[in-house]
Predict the 3D structure of the following.
Amino acid sequence: MTPISDWVLHRWTKTVFIVSLVLWLFLSSNYHSRHPQPGLVERQSGERPVDLVQNDPKDQPGEPVESQLEDQRLDSPHHEIRDESTDLVQHEPRKKRRALAPRDDWNGRPITWSVSLSTGKMLDCAMNADEQQEISKCFQGKPVQATSPYTQYEQLNQWGWDQSSLPQQDYLEELSEATNRLDEVQSWLGHNLKQKSRLIIWDHSKTVTKGGKTYDATRGIYKGLYNAVFGFIIVLDVSSPRHAVSKMSCPPENVVELEKWSDVTALQWGQLLETLKDAVSLKNLIYAPVTNTDSVRTMREALGVEASFSEWQNYAEKRNFKKFSRASNDKRFFALLGSPSVRGAAWMLIQHRPIFGHWRVASITIFGNQVGVWKPGLIVELEPVK
């Protein structure tokens, strides 16, 4: 081979080697950019690598996502049908997510024990106040409407609410299911819960137009057992229109204005007072079961048990019911009054005095209730303001 040929071959070999090396480096770099080392990712900002496998317990699912979407205003009863971990209603598959901060209440603060306590004291003040000006003072100058704009039973239909009718067999089954598990409560109250009780379901099922604006049907549901003869309501299902649309395509601004549990329940009770000759004043509200996460947390704190406590069967017998009364000026009473599940009842008494009279919450009792599994329940006793 001539020197020239040898030189050409050498140059060619060297060029091929360099090109191959460059190509290998390029492909290798591209591969690693698409497939980082397991468990590590480099941030573009130049921060240190962050472990992708987060084993911090804060990242595990906590409260149901849908609970974060509930309406947080003062008059919301927050008695949704879904619970913290086990539930009669099937949850959608949970996704790993960051733990969320405690939810905000009507004035933007987290719903902690202290917030429930202060809210309860404001509500108690308003229930005892006589005039609009006095009621406003109870809420530290915040604008409040002392009287609801909804005073006529017919307004329910006008705003898209429809009273659902169940087949006779289904009706009887639901009535039995709602009362048979409350034997101890029946003994506590001294009434037959089934006798002269009516299962009433309000379903927001109609789209309506009011003042040129269209309000979509939301399928919000308020279900309760009403007994105007003995004066009690068993609250069974509260899924507000605002909560319902959080899972739909309905814009929040299209949520019906007559949406609150307190308004719907008050108008229904007023209708019973007008149509039943032997109707009496509302004396007790029974929440069975209580499933709102913040309310259950407040109940645990009132009982002085651990945050994970679930042995509600310990409070199933009447002798083990835990009663907290206003008369004793017990902080636990006011905290329970300000909890999401009870404050709707207080607001109902404040805004609907033409129906209920000048009444207030007198005591709140915690009990255990078996609904497939053991859950907490509440008995809210009412009394006239002297």
Remarks:
- The first helix runs from residue 3 to 34.
- The mean pLDDT is 79.
- The first strand starts at residue 40 and ends at 41.
